[in-house]
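Write out the 3D structure for:
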Amino acid sequence: MHGALARGVAKVNVNAELRRAYLEAVRASLPSALPGSDVVSVWAAGRDAVRDAALEVIGRLSPRAEGAHA
């Protein structure tokens, strides 16, 4: 990814990574939410997963990460 950025790529699409993180978190949290119909916990799990995935992408794009991720 750093190679592309070094060559002038200005936009990186991360929708697939964020969507995958959200759907996986919802899938994992849904069974425990169903007995009490706690949909808020499902949404929270999805939100937290998207946040974590976004931070991972930001970390990979960070110039400081360049030496760590070749």
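The chain has a mean pLDDT of 80.
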